[in-house]
Amino acid sequence: MELQVNNVFKHIAIAGLGLIGGSLAKTLRERNLVDKITGYGRNPERMEKARQMGLIDEFFIGFENGLDDVDLIVIGTPVRTIVRNARELLPYVRPGTVVTDVGSVKGPITDGIEPHVPDGCFFIGGHPIAGTENSGFEHALSDLFQDRVCVLTPTAQTDQHELDRLGRFWEMVGSRVIRMDVDSHDTIFAAISHLPHMVAFSLVNALVDMKDFGDNILQYSAGGFKDFTRIAASDPVMWKDIALMNRDNIITVLDRFEHALSVLKDAIARKDEHEIEKLFERSRDTRRAI
User: Fold this and answer.
1) In what order do the strands lie in the sheet with 122-128?
2) Could you read off the pLDDT of 86-142 as tens digits, one per residue?
């Protein structure tokens, strides 16, 4: 049975029209899933551009206006500003409003927001596992969330009805919803998402620093290198924030990666053909199974 808009949310506010926020607005608009989309941002010229592109119906620079009839607020600002923005907007939300975010770190965000939510309102952490190396609503995609996972991170304080409601919302834009506690989320995504970015950034920097080749070694890069390091083109400010907010978990997985790299390095140094091949086969078989 097709979901009806009345069963979910009518008026959505999006604070932070980056790639994720812009793509969410584009998806909602093209699928006609909401009656109204209000944008919040810091730059009136850019917000006006988003309005002219049809992503939002109206916009405000401060949170004092426009939130009195909003059903759902999605905070899509950089992760280190999510808590601040949430605390600034919470005094203006009406009872029944659901507030969520799209940050890839959940523990510090949940801890920083949940105690400040007014009675009758709800905060539920969210993390759509979607994105590209591009940033900004100019790169918004209406199918960004299609067949992608969206993780919701309820706590002991989470209202079950509103959790189900938010889950239906993400399903409507194409996502497969998974529920997970915040600690498990931050541990898992430190390994599966944050570590690959740290490795890609470091690999590119390592090659840039190889000055003994006499010229720019990267000019010889082919498809494999470009595919592997694509995510190194991601927003450095965003990933700096993620690295600091999920610091302990990322350091743990970096230690494990360093160990795995040292095992391979040692096998190569010893010319241990059997061990090298075994390591490569294990990696190949695991990758093929994904």
Assistant:
1) 58-60, 36-40, 11-15, 72-75, 98-101, 122-128, 149-153, 176-179
2) 999 999 999 999 999 999 999 999 999 999 999 999 999 999 998 777 778 898 899
Q: Cα–chain-centroid distance for residue 238?
A: 10
CA atoms within 13 A on the CB side of 125: 28
3-state secondary structure of 250: helix
Residue 229 Cα distances to 133, 190, 260, angstroms = 10, 18, 19
Per-residue pLDDT tens for 161-205? Answer: 999 999 999 999 999 999 999 999 999 999 999 999 999 999 888
With 0.90 as the threshold, say if the pTM is over it. no
Residues of the chain with CATH 1.10.3660.10: 185-289
Residue ranges matching CATH 3.40.50.720 in the chain: 5-180
Q: In a 3-state reduction of DSSP, which class is residue 72?
A: strand
Closest CA to 254 of 206, 188, 198: 198
Class of domain 5-180: alpha beta
CATH architecture, range 185-289: Orthogonal Bundle (1.10)
